[in-house]
Amino acid sequence: MNKKIAIILAGLVIVIGGIFGIMKMTSSNSESTTIKSGTFTVGLEGTYAPFSYHDDKGKLTGFEVEIARALAKKMDMKVNFVQSKWDSLIAGLNSKRYDAVINNIGITDERKENYRMSTAYLYPRAALIKRTGDTSLNSLSDIKGKTMAQSVTSNYGKKAKAEGANIKAVAGIIEAMNLVTTNRADGSLNDMGAFENWKQSNPDADVEAVDISKEMGSTPDGVLMNKDSKKLQSKVNKAMQELRDDGTLTKLSKKYFNKDLTKE
C-alpha cells in the first residue's frame, strides 16, 4: 500500500511540475516584447530613398534603416528588416510579420487610436511636385481638381484627397514621378527630402518642387507598433530618447538631408 501511494505521489509531482513548467513558459512568452526574442523585426519599403533603399552594392541603407539599427543596438537586440510595398506595410504589421514599421509614418490621432507610436524622430518638409514651369500649381489650394499621383493610404495621399484632387494611385515616389514626367498626372505631394534624392538620380527630369510645409503643417514621423505592444513602445521610446540625447538623430538627419529635421 505504501509503495502504491509513493508511486501515485511521484506521478502527481511530475504532473504538477509539468503544469508549472508550461505556466512559466507561457508567462515568458507573454512577456516577450518582440515576435522573435532578442530580435527587432522592422517593416519598410526599401525603395524610398533617402529613407530606405539599396546602395550601389545592393546593401539596404538609408536614414530610417540606420535609425532602426541604432534603436535595436540601444535595446540590446538584433535587427531584421522585412521589405514590403507601402500599401501593404500596415497590413503586415497587423498580421505580425514584423514588430514595427519605420517608413516615414506620420504620427496622427487616427493612427494613435488603433496603434502605438513612438515619440517623433523626424519633422519632414512637405513638397508639391510639378512639371517645371507649371504656373497653375503654386500652393496646396491649387491641387483642387488636379490629378495627383499618390499612395492613397499615406498622409500625403489623404491630404491631396481632402483638398479635392483627383487621385491616381501609385505604389511610391518612383511611380508618381513617372506619371508626372509623362503627363499622366499633374503633380504629387510628397516629402521634400525624398524628392531631392530622386532628383539627384534624375537630374534631367523636367520637374520641380514647391515647399508647402507651412501650408500643410508638419506631421512628425514615428515608429508604428501594434496596440498590444505596450512594453515594446516603452523600450523604443527610451532608446529613441537616448539617440536624441547622444546626438545620433541629429547626425543621421544631417547625413541624409543636409540639415537637422529632428526638432520641431
Automatic annotation (TrEMBL):
Coiled-coil blocks: none
Keyword Transport: no
Chain ranges of the Solute-binding protein family 3/N-terminal domain: 39-260
Recorded superkingdom: Bacteria
SUPFAM superfamilies linked: Periplasmic binding protein-like II (SSF53850)
Family label: Belongs to the bacterial solute-binding protein 3 family.
Protein name per UniProt: Cystine transport system substrate-binding protein
